[in-house]
Amino acid sequence: MNDPKITNVRVLDLRFPTSQHHIGSDAVNRDPDYSAAYCILETDEGVEGHGFTFTLGRGTELCVSAIRYLSRFVCGRHLSSLTDDLAHFSRQLTRDSQFRWLGPEKGVIHLATAALVNAVWDLYARAENKPLWKLLADFEPEQIVAAIDFTYITDAITPEEGLALLKQRAPCKETRLQHLQQSGYPAYTTSTGWFGFSDDKIRDLCRQALDQGWTHFKLKVGGDPGHDLRRSRLVRQEIGPANKLMMDANQQWGVIESIERTNALAEVDPWWMEEPTSPDDILGHARIRKQVSPVRIATGEHCHNRVMFKQLMQAEAIDVCQIDSCRLAGVNENLAVLLMAAKFDIPVCPHAGGIGLCECVQHLAIFDYLRVSTSLEGRVTEFVDHLHEHFVNPVRIRNGHYLLPQQPGYSTEICSETLSAYSYPDGPVWRQ
């Protein structure tokens, strides 16, 4: 491996005016502008690492400031000083004895940590000339475990248990890889069911998606009960009884209302109800799950850290685990959650509703199948058909499946033209 030295960290505030067309709209976030606090690790060898954290517009500048502060932990360092002990590097960012008071492993600080950690992994994969999923898949079990901070989760899984699980599931990796090379990783689309879309637009988008080979569809709910039911019936009518319909309330309801509303929508056979209530309410999710069965409960895109995921699993509060590449502290913490989900036998269906999230989570889902869960049963990764044209190596979709990324890195690099045009507030898109 080359050992470039990080000489500078560029940080940008990128925002896209998606609210103009209701893209990304849900019951809580009615006017999101998909945005990213984006960082570039520049090195003395010319190779760069790109990372970001996803936001919805206002407040992105806070993440930008936090990334600039945290960049002191990587500037002037050789890549090997970070990758030789990835868990230690992660702790350096999350355990600053003064800065962590502003948000210990949660909030703006954790989002900034994700951007920087992901940039380091992108640089690492580029230096090794491998896509991130392959870099991880080629790790020895000991290397995977060594990249994880097990602090606070050893009551759920220990390093020894994680190592044993990885060794047990190591056989037949090449067979699984051949399957992905032939078919891709299964996905579902959210682009047909944004909250602000009209009935006619939803109907047209469902038909287009069916023609493109999609079999899993997600609809945003959380509005007027009659409105939700009518739209749910509309989508079910369009996609037919054999395809999967998922629903997402985006934290709109309290616990009692979640139970009532989910049961009221059960007639259209939802495959899961996503984020019915506050993402912090572990016991609330557990109660909802018990009282809406057989509708499954999914959550995770707003889980602050691995500890919350641990509690959701221990409390038997979720049926589907939804990791997010930029909400947790980057690749390292997502590895911890993947191992816990495998131990608790909970399928991981990554969240990807935001700019660049599809590009990132495809790598994590592929790695999960190759080395951790080793199963595709009940597993799909979210896809939204927006803004991929801004990435140097955008996702590739065929018949509702992610095709394997081929280029080195984490697929996080945004085109230079986009960096100029969408920089906030001085880019030409925003000046206009």
Question: Which key terms come to mind for this protein?
Answer:
432 residues; alpha/beta; 41% helix; globular
List the helices and strands and how they pair.
Elements (H helix, E strand, L loop, with lengths): L5 E10 L19 E9 L5 E7 L4 H11 L8 H5 L2 H9 L12 H21 L4 H6 L3 H6 L12 H10 L4 H11 L1 E5 L9 H13 L4 E5 L4 H15 L4 E5 L6 H10 L7 E3 L7 H11 L3 E4 L6 H9 L5 E2 L8 H15 L12 H16 L8 E3 L13 E2 L2 E2 L13 H6 L6 H4 L1
Parallel strand pairs: 4-10, 5-6, 6-7, 7-8, 8-9
Antiparallel strand pairs: 1-2, 2-3, 4-12, 11-12
Query: Proportion of β residues?
Result: 5-15%
Give the termini distance in whole angstroms: 45 Å
Which secondary-structure class do the elements indicate? alpha/beta
Number of strands: 12
Strand order of the largest sheet: 5-6-7-8-9
Total of DSSP H or I helical runs spanning 4+ residues: 17
Most strands sheet: 5 strands, parallel
- Residues in helix, %: 40-55%
Average pLDDT figure: 93
Q: Can you tell me the residue ranges where pLDDT is under 50 for at least 5 consecutive residues?
A: none
Shape label = globular
CA-based gyration radius: 21 Å
Order of helices and strands: EEEHHHHHHHHEHEHEHEHEHEHHEEEHH
